[in-house]
Design a protein that fits this description.
- The chain has 378 residues and is an alpha+beta fold.
Length: 378
């Protein structure tokens, strides 16, 4: 059997969400096909192999998230170009065939750990280091979509040097108010997930406060025009670089779109993860079949132009007043919690959780095998 390492936790504001997502993923891995190895990353970035008792604990009570036990004798070392022997504990290889990173946000879906897997020459689930890095940056993602003729909400990007210069700052705010046609506006860090640091500003004073909050998370901040929007999402899997392929595993597929109906001011961190009544999840979204197909096609186009592979959740806004469709953002390692939209939308299309996890593992292996055929030197 193949050995799958599920890596979770990490140095991000979404550490706790990763513990929940990873537990769900672990429960969805077919143990008749795969052996499971658990590697937890602490908030300060240390890697530890977890005892089998941790697997038994979350399987005995399926409401529990994973935990990370820190034993120095179980510390994990990484060997570049080590292939299946790249991960070592106490001088002994873990013999990993593929990694399933159940990590969200910074150091998890921003290309850093994907680059490490590439250096280790180990197959992994999800987007490449380049696609992960680009999609983590909301400004760069929007720029690529715009260049491809795909619709995005009007926005501006403020960098920290502007915030630190009062003259530049005042001029920037005045220009932004004109370009985005006044308030309200949404403010969010360019490179953070789960709505960390995001807020709505109804006037200049609130905008100033929102910017200070957002700059705690990143050195670049996105300011977007507020629209009276419905929030629609679409799950996508496949390898957009090799598409179309002669394998169902590599085929790019968009699943049944779902709609978020938040009870909060907007779909913030609390609504996503802390408040059971934070939002209603409507699958399929309450749209005509024609509009649902438009969402699916746009999601595939957005996925492909970014060279996404493995999986992503593509998020949309639909203007309630004009019915215009806008791309919002793309998440290359979306939540896998019991209430997460990504697996729910796949399930609604007939791809159950265990089948989904199996598909993602197989796609990661197929992509790695294809890449192994490429030349890297003369």
């Amino acid at each position: 059997m193949m050995n799958v390492a599920v890596i979770y936790g990490g140095r991000s504001g979404e550490h706790e969400i990763s513990l929940i997502s990873a537990a769900s993923i672990v429960r969805g891995i077919n143990t008749a096909k795969y052996n499971i190895t658990l590697i937890g990353i602490t908030k300060d970035g240390k890697w530890y192999l977890q005892d089998k008792s941790e697997y038994d604990r979350i399987m005995a009570d399926k409401t529990l998230p994973l935990q990370i036990t820190e034993k120095e004798t179980m510390a994990v070392s990484v060997i570049p170009a080590g292939k299946k022997d790249a991960f070592v504990v106490n001088g002994k290889s873990l013999e990993i065939d593929i990694v399933f990173p159940a990590l969200h946000g910074t150091y998890g879906e921003d290309g850093t750990i994907q680059g490490l897997f590439e250096m280790c020459d180990v197959p992994y689930v999800g987007c490449t280091h380049l696609a992960s890095a680009i999609t983590m940056d909301k400004e760069k993602t929007k720029m690529i979509w715009q260049a491809a003729g795909l619709p995005v909400v009007p926005y501006v990007c403020m960098k920290r040097f502007v915030m630190l210069d009062s003259v530049l700052y005042d001029a920037f705010i005045e220009s932004t108010e004109k370009e985005l046609e006044g308030y309200p506006m949404f403010v969010k860090p360019c490179c953070a997930g789960s709505s960390n640091g995001a807020s709505k500003a109804n006037n200049r004073r609130e905008l100033s406060y929102a910017l200070m909050q957002a700059f705690q998370w990143d050195d670049k901040v996105l300011i977007e025009k507020s629209i009276n929007a419905r929030e629609v999402e679409c799950s996508v899997t496949g390898n957009s670089v090799t598409y179309p392929a002669d394998s169902d595993i590599e085929d790019v597929v968009a699943y049944i779109p779902g709609e978020i109906a938040p009870s909060h001011t907007f779909y913030d961190f609390d609504a996503k993860y802390n408040d059971p009544e934070g939002a209603k999840l409507l699958i399929p979204a309450e749209l005509s079949e024609k509009d649902l197909e438009k969402i699916r096609k746009t999601a595939c186009a957005a996925y492909k132009v970014l060279d996404a592979t493995g999986l992503s959740r593509v998020d949309f806004f639909i203007d309630r007043d004009t019915n215009a469709v806008y791309l919002n953002e793309i998440n290359t390692l979306p939540g896998f919690t019991p209430i997460s939209m990504f697996p729910k939308m796949c399930d609604a299309a007939g791809l159950g959780f265990e089948e989904l996890v199996d598909l993602l593992i197989e796609e990661g292996i197929a992509r790695f095998n294809a890449k192994e055929q490429l030349s890297t030197s003369r």
